[in-house]
């Protein structure tokens, strides 16, 4: 009963002890309390009760009872870090009985061996136990044994065998009322889905398991460890670190299992390294190594040592000793049959290459490269990365490019299984090394055109296909509606200076629910296998338009100037310096949004000149007289490009990639499309341009006041030709897909826009911060504008800085005047800037707005 209804079992056991039971019954009751405390409470209390249960079993002269308690005690001792004592207790339990009771003890010993990382011995114990349990028609213990065997298979990388055992176990669990065991089976299924490369299914199953555990009221430390692993693979390392640290704090608070603490420390160390926090990773990994060593868990210790070495390398340490240590870890992992062995060999090869040890590097990289032919996607990518490094060391540029192509193809296929745009964007980080190697090789061997191809190969790939639209999901709809209501109430309370902690907690809960349901979606776009064609781009650009793609190699900006049938390369400044200058410009624009800051104008203009030198270098003098399309790296998304002197008086637009620009250029506007004008609440000017635009566009749909509610706004925006939205924008750096525009009934967020069948052909967002993005993955952007571009929007005008609301009104009216004359968004925006008064306030307002896309 303790694994069917744990808390009820605990209460029943305490009731038995209150009734002066016989030694046999008292032994059972103490064992139940001991198991409950072992798995969900204080290990010291658990050991006390289990030892008492053992002594009472001996008094009852029941060998079967004594063997069963010894098995439970042995597992508890192993979890407490007393490995030798635990294995000795389990051995005594095996010796005390035979037949069916012995099979149950063998299962517990197999479990303990799995905890310790003794996978082959664990499989042998389960192999002996399963036939006996089946013959005895012991459904519950057979299901447990099959679940454990599947989990051990997963640790050894045998996903197909694990899947067969999980399927068989699930059929048995369906015939029982073992609710905790069932939740554990769902959790294990989540791990299996992850091992087979299905991250959305893994997240969905782990969330389902958490719901089941919550109903039973039991902590979920193993679930936290597994979810950390999946979150890290999904590119969500900071979230994994937070979850691991929170679980460690809870575990310490209840005096829980030492083994689980060590595993959580390992998860935290891995997450910290992936999140770029090398010093935290070193601290956590060092603690994990010491715990695993004390617990005599060599399989786990080897994994922790690998993470410790990775963190030290990330912190800038490199030595011959590290090469030897990493090679030793790789050898140990290989001897255990651990899937992480190629990763360790790749690291040893990398360190050796850095030291110039070519022969050692080749030996280690050759071992790692074997994994490129089979296994889950990330393991194959490890193999292709090793193969690319081997080719580079051998001086084979062609070999580098071929290995990078094959590795990125693997990642492309993996990313298209992800339905959520956030996961697709974050997954790209796993190909960053391959993309960088390919760009270096293409620059050395193929010239500017090949560099352009490889720059495009890994730029804004999350925008290459629309995100998967969620199925008709009433719960998601309900959560979005509730989120809007709570967010609106919280905003109203803030304006009235009322405390809102309860509302903020509920808003955060709803955000987690919405995000979780979105991350569960599988991708439904197989990918069209399209490869970027420079010739097609040059044909589209013609003789007048120039496209400037900025690639970054070794921290320096490489300018690829496309136009007049050719691609030329220029070297500009350092990316880090350009980022600092861009922040200075943003600060200056914020100051200029307020009257009386005119003295800052020369400072901002000087920063614009420095930005041009750093970002365009000598290419600035080669732009010609026609329109310019800028394709910047994600880390330069906040540059106000119209501020750069060579771009100030010309038609300029921005695109996440040349591929994205081509798609926008070739997007056809809807026939007889609607014009939709939306005015949200709380604007300083009241959205003063909207009534004027309503007159200009006779017959336009005007949504304001109570009509500007999210469901109606989405209905009208779907398939519109032109949308103008005057509404307060809020950018969420912590959760960019909850960046929003404020409507009458609450915020409209990126998740809402992703449900449109086709977003408007052109969109104008006239308020602050609508063109802000989060830079994630390798070179990806998440935000409102980038959510619209894959959904059918060919052009957006949006703002990357705070602006003066009153100064925006004449800019917007002039912009629409240009559109009415048949101009593109970029052309109309250029003319609208020129039509503004020539003062600091209006000039800064014009610079803050950017045209994206090609409409």
TrEMBL record:
Coiled coil: none
Pfam family, one: CHAT
Protein name, per record: CHAT domain-containing protein
Record-linked SUPFAM superfamilies: TPR-like
SMART domains: TPR (SM00028)
InterPro entries to which the protein is assigned, alphabetical: CHAT_dom, TPR-like_helical_dom_sf, TPR_rpt
Domain of life: Bacteria
Regions crossing the membrane: none
CHAT domain segment(s): 606-853
């Amino acid at each position: 009963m303790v694994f069917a209804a744990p808390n009820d079992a605990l209460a029943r056991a305490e009731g038995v002890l209150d009734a002066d039971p016989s030694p046999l019954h008292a032994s059972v009751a103490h064992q139940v309390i001991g198991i409950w405390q072992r798995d969900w409470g204080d290990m010291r209390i658990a050991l006390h009760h289990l030892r008492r249960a053992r002594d009472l079993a001996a008094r009852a002269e029941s060998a079967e009872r004594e063997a069963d308690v010894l098995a439970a005690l042995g597992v508890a001792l192993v979890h407490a870090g007393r490995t030798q004592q635990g294995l000795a207790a389990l051995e005594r339990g095996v010796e005390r009985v035979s037949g069916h009771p012995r099979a149950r003890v063998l299962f517990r010993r197999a479990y303990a061996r799995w905890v310790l990382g003794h996978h082959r011995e664990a499989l042998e114990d389960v192999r002996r136990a399963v036939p006996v349990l089946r013959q005895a028609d012991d459904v519950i213990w057979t299901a447990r044994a099959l679940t454990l065997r599947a989990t051990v298979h997963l640790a050894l990388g045998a996903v197909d065998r694990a899947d067969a055992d999980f399927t068989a176990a699930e059929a048995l669990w369906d015939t029982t009322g073992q609710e905790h065991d069932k939740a554990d089976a769902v959790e294990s299924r989540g791990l299996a889905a992850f091992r087979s490369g299905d991250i959305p299914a893994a997240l969905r199953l782990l969330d389902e398991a958490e719901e089941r555990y919550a109903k039973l009221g039991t902590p979920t430390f193993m679930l936290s460890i597994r979810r950390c692993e999946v979150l890290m693979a999904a590119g969500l390392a900071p979230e994994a670190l937070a979850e691991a640290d929170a679980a460690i704090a809870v575990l310490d608070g209840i005096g829980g299992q030492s083994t689980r603490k060590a595993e959580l420390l390992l998860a935290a160390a891995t997450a910290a390294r992936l999140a770029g926090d090398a010093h935290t990773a070193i601290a956590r990994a060092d603690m994990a190594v010491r715990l695993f060593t004390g617990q005599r868990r060599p399989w786990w210790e080897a994994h922790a040592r690998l993470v410790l070495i990775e963190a030290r390398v990330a912190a800038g340490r490199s030595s011959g000793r590290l090469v030897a240590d990493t090679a030793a870890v790789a050898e140990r992992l290989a001897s255990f049959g651990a899937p992480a062995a190629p990763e360790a060999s790749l690291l040893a090869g990398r360190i050796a290459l850095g030291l110039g040890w070519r022969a050692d590097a080749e030996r280690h990289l050759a071992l790692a490269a074997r994994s490129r032919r089979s296994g889950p996607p990330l393991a194959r990518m490890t193999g292709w990365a090793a193969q690319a490094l081997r080719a580079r060391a051998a001086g084979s540029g062609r070999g580098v490019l071929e290995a990078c192509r094959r590795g990125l193809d693997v990642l492309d296929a993996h990313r298209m299984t992800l339905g959520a745009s956030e996961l697709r964007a974050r997954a790209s980080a796993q190909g960053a090394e391959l993309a960088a190697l390919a760009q270096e090789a293409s620059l050395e061997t193929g010239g500017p055109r090949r560099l352009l191809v490889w720059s495009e190969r890994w730029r804004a790939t999350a925008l290459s296909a629309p995100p998967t639209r969620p199925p008709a999901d009433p719960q998601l709809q309900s959560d979005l509606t509730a989120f809007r209501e709570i967010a609106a109430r919280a905003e109203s309370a803030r304006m009235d200076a009322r405390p809102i902690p309860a509302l903020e907690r509920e808003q955060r809960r709803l955000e987690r629910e919405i995000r979780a349901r979105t991350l569960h979606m599988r991708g439904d776009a197989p990918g069209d296998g399209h490869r970027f064609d420079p010739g097609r781009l040059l044909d589209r650009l013609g003789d007048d338009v120039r496209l400037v793609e900025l690639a970054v190699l070794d921290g320096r900006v490489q300018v690829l100037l496309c136009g007049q049938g050719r691609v030329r390369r220029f070297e500009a400044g350092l990316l880090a310096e350009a980022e600092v200058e861009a922040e200075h410009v943003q600060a200056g624009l914020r100051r200029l949004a307020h009257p009386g800051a005119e003295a800052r104008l020369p400072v901002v203009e000087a920063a614009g000149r420095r930005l041009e030198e750093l970002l365009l270098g000598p290419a600035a003098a080669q732009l010609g007289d026609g329109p310019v399309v800028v394709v910047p790296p994600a880390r330069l998304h906040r540059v106000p490009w119209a501020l750069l002197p060579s771009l100030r008086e010309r038609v300029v637009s921005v695109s996440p990639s040349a591929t994205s620009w081509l798609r926008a250029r070739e997007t056809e506007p809807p026939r007889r499309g609607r014009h939709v004008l939306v005015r949200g609440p709380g604007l300083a000017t009241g959205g003063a341009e909207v009534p004027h635009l309503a007159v200009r566009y006779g017959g336009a749909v005007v949504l304001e006041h109570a009509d500007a509610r999210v469901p109606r706004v989405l209905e009208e925006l779907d398939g519109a030709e032109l949308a103008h939205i005057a509404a307060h924008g809020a950018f969420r750096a912590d959760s960019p897909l909850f960046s929003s525009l404020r409507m009458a009934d609450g915020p409209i967020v990126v998740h809402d826009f992703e449900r449109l069948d086709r977003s408007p052909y052109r969109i104008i967002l006239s308020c602050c911060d609508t063109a802000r993005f989060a830079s994630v993955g390798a070179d990806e952007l998440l935000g409102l504008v980038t959510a619209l571009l894959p959904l059918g929007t060919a052009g957006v005008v949006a703002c990357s800085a705070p602006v003066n609301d009153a100064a925006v009104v004449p800019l917007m009216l002039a912009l629409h005047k240009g559109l009415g004359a048949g101009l593109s968004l970029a052309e109309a925006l250029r003319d609208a800037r020129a039509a503004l008064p020539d003062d600091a306030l209006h000039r800064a307002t014009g610079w803050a707005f950017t045209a994206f896309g090609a409409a």
